[in-house]
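Friendly challenge for the regulars: who can give me the structure tokens for this chain first? No prize, just bragging rights.
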Amino acid sequence: MDTTLPVLCSICITIEQVPHTERYEAVAFEPIIGNRDVVHHMLLFGCENDMGTSTIHQCGAQDGTCSTWFAQYSLGVRGPICLPRDVGVQFGKDSFTKMLLQVHWNNNNASANATDDSGFRIYYTTTPRAYDLGNVQIGQNEISIPPQSEVTVRGSCSTRCTRMFHHPIYLTRTYIHMHYLGTSGKLELYRNGSLETLIAKDEDYIYDKSPIHEHQNPIEILPGDEIMLSCTFNSRDGHRKKDRITHFGEGSEAEMCYAFVSYFPRVRGFDQCIQMGSRDINC
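First reply, four minutes later:
Bragging rights claimed.
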């Protein structure tokens, strides 16, 4: 997509021409970034129903019907996102026949001539894979960071939420996402109230260089487990110093506390596991 960009904007692009004569398996997603100065993040979703919206539109409530996300890009993601050998993302015949690309721009300099044509390149095959990939977003939407302070925010995929699946799932990839006040983050697995596994840890978090954690030995999650994300923010020191409260928001001047996690086999409806304070908002 190529258009002049406002300061802060989320645009959704409905992709109608998805191959659907056969069942396909996506095996890799490559972010193609046209303008790194303004692209904050992108999400690619699979849609099971007719969106009823124009091809290019301002993202809104109607786009919530496409909740199954295939791939995610934000600063720090480099190169193609390759799936494990025996895992794929199904689309096409008897599966997802439409896709939705969400692009969030953060044009901090308010450049009048900024344009962008970013998207994803999808690599796919007709060879069936043993497992269907799932992706889940874990985190906390209630964030309030006082000025000149250091605080830790936590968001849990609670035991109540993980009981929605009735068999183990296996985590293959984790990406922790905060903005400029983020200094460290970790994702932990608790079982029966006790720490079982440290899934991923970013000890020295840098917004535009945050790493991808590939779990070569997939991490087993059982129904009733808790997956806890902790994000530490610093509004006190150096270039992070703030004289006002920083809240949750999509722009890089606000903050986020999310982990984007890939797993198999996919559990239908297990796409987001987010809290607002202590309240589960997706299960």
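The radius of gyration is 19 Å. The mean pLDDT is 90. Your move, everyone else.
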